[in-house]
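In the laboratory, one determines a bound structure by crystallizing the protein with its ligand and collecting diffraction data. In a computational setting the workflow is compressed into a single prediction: the sequence and the ligand go in, and a structural description comes out. We illustrate the idea with zinc ion.
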Amino acid sequence: MTDFKCEICGKDVDLDLFLKDFKVCPFCSHHYMLDVKTRINLIADTDSFNEIAGNLKSIDFLNFTDTKSYSDRIAECEQKTGISEAIITGSARIGGYNVCLGVMDFSFMGGSMGSVVGEKVKRLADFAVANKFPLILVCTSGGARMQEGIISLMQMAKTVSAINRAKDSGVPYISVISNPTTGGVSASFATAADIIIAEPQALFCFAGPRVVKQTIKKELPPDFGLSERNLKNGQIDMIVNRKDLKKTLIKILKLFSGK
Ligand SMILES: [Zn+2]
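The predicted complex, in C-alpha cell form:
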C-alpha cells in the first residue's frame, strides 16, 4: 500500500512500513515527529511504563486570550492528541533497567513549557532521586508557553534546579533531542544532561535560524542548529538513528549501572 509521499525526498512510501519503522522515511531516513505513545513503545519495555503526575493539568491563571482563549487551546489539544500535557512522565524499564522517563510531544501546543511541564519534570527528577533510577527526557519543544507569561520562563530555573539536585545525588541524566528542540527547553533541561543524544537532522538551538538571520543580518550555514553541526561543535555527544535508540540507551544504562 503506497499512500504517503515523503515531504523531504518526495518518494512514495508504504504507510504500513513507515509506521512500523517508527516514522522514519526508508529512502532518505528523515525522522518525522513522534507522538508520546509511539515514542514510549519505541524505547520502553512492553507494558513497563507507569505514569507519574498524570493528574496535573494546566489552568488559564492569566485569563490569556490571543486569537483563542488559553483554556480553549488546552481543551482542543487534549481532544486532538489524547494526552493532557506537552510532556508525559513516568517510571519504565528499558532493557530491564528501571528508569524515570519523560517524553515530550510537539503536537501538544508546540511542546511548549508551561508550569505543568516544569512541575512534571521536577516531580520526575525527585522520583529518580528517591528511587535511584536514571533519568531520561525525550525533548521536543518550540520554547516557553507564552500563554503563561513570566511563569513559563521560571520553569527553566525550576527544572534545572531539580535536575541538578538529581545529579548531585548521583542520578545519571540522559536527554534525547528530537526535531525540533528550541527556546526555553533547549536552554534548560534539554542541555543540562550528562549525555545528550540527538536524532539525525534534528534542530536543536535556542533561537531558530530565521530569527537569528533576521537579527544578525547574515547568511547562516545551511546546517545551522542541526545535529550534524552540533556534534562537530561539541553541543551534543552522539547522533543516533531512531532504530538504534533503544539499544544505545541500554548500553549507556549498563555503563551507568557499573555492571
Ligand atoms: Zn524521504
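Residues 31 and 55 are 31 Å apart (CA to CA). Keep in mind that any predicted model is a hypothesis to be tested, not a measurement.
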